[in-house]
Please model this.
Amino acid sequence: MKKKVLAIFLSTVLSVSTLAGCGGGAAPAAPAAGGADAGAAETKQEESTEAAPDETAEAKSGKQTDGKNVPELTTEPMTITLWDISTEDPNKTIAEEAVARFTADYPNITVNHVHQQNDNYKQQLVVAMSSGQCPDIYVHWGGGPMAEYYKSGHACDITDMYAKYDHPEYVEAAVAQSTYDGKMLAIPFSGLTGCDIFYNKTIFKDLGIEVPQTIDELEAVCEKLKENGIIPFSLANASKWTGSMYYMYLVARHSGNAEFDAAYTQENGGSFTSPAFIYAGEKIQDWVKKGYFPDGVNSLTADDNQDRALLYDGSAAMMLHGSWQVGGIKADNEEWYNENIGVFRFPEDTEAKAAGVPQNVEIGTAIGMGMTFNCFKEDGSVDQDKLDACFVLATQYFNDDTYNAEQVAAGTVPSIKGFNENIDDPNNKYIIDEFFKASNVQLWYDQYLPASVTEVHKDCMTELFGLEKTPQEIGEEQDAAMQKALAE
Amino acid sequence: MEKGRNTGLARTRARSTAGAATVFLLPALILIIVFIVYPVIDTFVISGFKWNGISSDRTLIGLDNWNTLIHDEMFWKSFGHNLTVMVFSILLQIPLGMLLATFLDAGGKKFNIFKIIWFLPYLMSSVAIAFLFVYALATNGGLISSLATLINGKKTTIDLLGKSPNALFTIIGVMAWQFTPFYMVYFVAGYGNIDTTIYEAAVIDGATRGQYLRYIAIPLLGPIFKTACTMSLIGSLKYFDMIWNMTQGGPAGTTELMATYMYKLSFQQFNMGYGSTVAAGMFILITAIALLFNKVFRVKEDY
Model:
């Protein structure tokens, strides 16, 4: 794996002296950059004298795409609008630098790079799409909304381009998540995100607690923490998707992916009231009653990091959360992080294990976010020139070595093969290793489900943790929403 | 002759007034048509379609959305919340505003400092107020819970936003905090409009301050009450911004208002067609209630 990364690196620096041809026969459909060099060298196409590479000076002054099998871009002036949600550093700088490298190589192309606020981004995108102002490139989290964007004609199918041209070698799960209905619709550019239990090592050590391996052991740990006046789990459930993580994991441990997949289709008896969902709901409500979660759990918000705050002041000992917390906690106080924070995977369900249910399904996402291209002409046909430019920007400048190195430095693990090695942070390494060992990755429900079901699911999480409805009732609600969404 | 010239002049004058009126009204008219009339009509048009909001094709489904709306439990539940908010807004904001205004009116210039301080909440944006209160009411380290912990001597959590029915009433309280100053200023202006000679006459006739208020000032403020109530009513029925930033309709839809429901449908759930139906339904309901309210009040005024 390392070799391949090295190959990409070398081929960039010591780029060969020709631009890659974009004609059909120019290069074999080679996903790896190493294989593309040979193919690209055969055809030399010069679009204009200006763009023609000077063979000798090339190694120093050429574009970083030289020698790669990428589509040849127009030399006409062009403007690409790019929307992302990188409003804060380090992501903001990383993204802007990638764009700057692109425009330096293709000075005729202007990139109108807009950073939108995350909170209202999805709505903003809907408004833009409905009013014909959809950006040429926009970022999203995949899942149900990506399908919706595609069905509404705001996403270019890049399956053929992906097969034909060079691109980073993404992990399979990332490609799968960028695909809908057999069509590749997005280029991943952020990273792998796992979900595991962060815990306070110092508290565990002081109380002589071992990391639990099974859910029974986890409950024993909770009891012990309770006895010592410590809240077992820090959870800010006003955000709803936070509570959903407990629900998803309990379902996954009890039934793998099987019952969720069945409930998603609502076929062959599949239902959100099937045993695993009832089990998960009852477990959660039992834990709420026993005081395993903080008081007022439904009014704490994760956006304000109120869950992290409970870890910081030692009032809570564990927190089931996404791997982005590593970077977040580190940024708050790296010293404290190094001393106190450890991570373990969601414990196993012994009974289910005995019945042969896989216990290594991980919750998370393999792409974090993807970039999708909306390059259409007035008449609805694909604007190939623009799409080419967008594709090159997303695959060769985002996701290039500089970009990936900066991502890694910021604590994100790119969804590209090989990056799971050499991770410095032990917690991050643990999370990523678990991710790669997983028999299957369950994408967050709130991103995977159709948008209308997501809302219902999220409200159900409030009701579940608030003890306002029974697991059976929320199951029925989710079933009803799912059936309605499927009927549409 | 002279008569004829007069009529001619009058006609010219009428014509030029009409001309000027058109010129002056046109910009406003255009703005109203573009930003109010057209969107309202379009909302009704879209409500007849099944449309996800981003696709170029819409499917005409006639009155299906309206049929759904009539049987939509969530919509009526939201409407119920709106009504609760409306009733309590009128009951809280207007009497409180009136009380403060009476206090300010009695105090005269020396109370100007109160006038300024009390007016401050209304000057803040709803979003800022929402965030302010979310932090102040947080169960973890928020003002209220911390105070309760201090008084109680042990960790006490008062969950004002995470539970029903607390959440809705907390929001009503915060709304009152925000809007009472507006009605206060409104009533201060109302008091200012009452001729001082009336007060003097009353005093000469031997009326006490209380009698003056009860029998003279308050009846004279009648029209102001009516307008204030109508404004509060419409305001609470279409309320959105602060509630969105505080609870987003949560926990579990217990603070869902018609407007937040409409927003979620249209922009989060890819259901613009039905979202528009909800918006149109809101339009009809609010108009009906406001008209009804006006009618009832007019009858009262007549006696």
